[in-house]
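S.,

Sequence below, as promised.
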Amino acid sequence: MASSPLFAPSKISRINHLFKSCFPHCRSRSPAAHFGQATGHLPSFFPFPLLVHPRFKSLSAASSTSDVVSLSLHRGKSGEEDLVVLGIETSCDDTAAAVVRSDGEILSHVVYSQADLLARYGGVAPKMAEEAHSRVIDEVVQQAIEKANLTEKDLSAVAVTIGPGLSLCLRVGVQKARKIAGLFNLPIVGSIIWRLMLWLTEKDLKFPFLALLISGGHNLLILANELGHYVQLGTSIDDAIGEAYDKTARWLGLDLRKGGGPALEELAREGDPNSVKFSTPMRQHKDCNFSYAGLKTQVRLAIESTKTDMENNPISSASSEDRRKRADIAASFQRVAVLHLEERCERAIEWALKIEPSIKHLVVSGGVASNRYVRSRLDHIVDKNGLRLVCPPPNLCTDNGVMVAWTGIEHFCLGRFDPPPPVHESEDFVFDLRPRWPLGEEYSQGRSEARSLKTARMHPSLTSIIQGSARHQP
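The prediction came back faster than expected:
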């Protein structure tokens, strides 16, 4: 291990220096101590959650084009040695890359949106999304590096999302990250569940807390006891809430260029939420799992009963009566979809308080967390139960390279990364992607109440981190 450039004394010294200056909240004295373990294995990494250092400042709303996002930067102390990490994100429908320093300065952030594809196909088509990522990934990454006024030789590491997400899309980002890391002898960090990172502007937010991920591909309820120790209370057993929003928006003929969820939320404000009687999913199951497939079927049948081909007749050309019908369906869907979310969260709060009575916060993230109606209803639930709701800014609820890069910095400073991959990697090399990531142990009461869950597994590539996680999980 001593022969590897990753573990040279100068590198370890630099990590120690940065660890002490940038991450005082971490309990370990220094990350270098981990490398002295007799096993010789890299220590396990935690997929959730990461505490964002207060020096990491905010960025403005993400651009829908490949233009560089306007950022609010915060420079560290002069003379402080910093890590510089490239973050690559391709988990779903946006291609993003960012360069971030360990002092919190965002050097660049580039986002390429697939909004036109979303509108054309009425949602995310995995194969089309993969092809779109492949077409622009080189340009997006190169722009991020150039806008930072750096070259690849100036980077300290490369971070990339390996899950959750669409496996076809994840593969594009991982391939690009491994190529750069191999060519320039850089360590690589597999970023997992980076959407659940905490944007810590509130000083009183401490472990333990309850966390909710609500996105297009995943719903998760997690009890976070401390770094690396968490209990899964509930998860999606079929479709996630974001996917249900997108599909309903498509069936209603809405403009999807800015996303199905925002379009449906806007239309729902015009409708009567009690006009269409949809049944709330899974009320007979006393657990914290989520299911939206049945609600989607109810919505489709309600649309068919209007005898109008709404999907192929855009709402922009609809009559006032037709628009009202669509608005009523949208409002009724949203009420029941969020009611299901409320019920699961309320039960999760009950369970979590049994395990950790000191819980004071529900932390929410994911694309659906930007929905104002969702936030207002969740705020009602936590207030009723004596908790507080913590949400990231709306522009940080969706995919972005900045959070991936920052996750990479946190992992790297704790010694949780993979060594540089081979420069010439075989084309048939298989990658360790986690489209659905199992977070920690599952609450026993939840197991007894829940339906059986299907899991997706792909062959390993970022093996040292993943295997180390299994061996060293506390």
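The chain is about 35% helix and 15% strand.

Coffee later?
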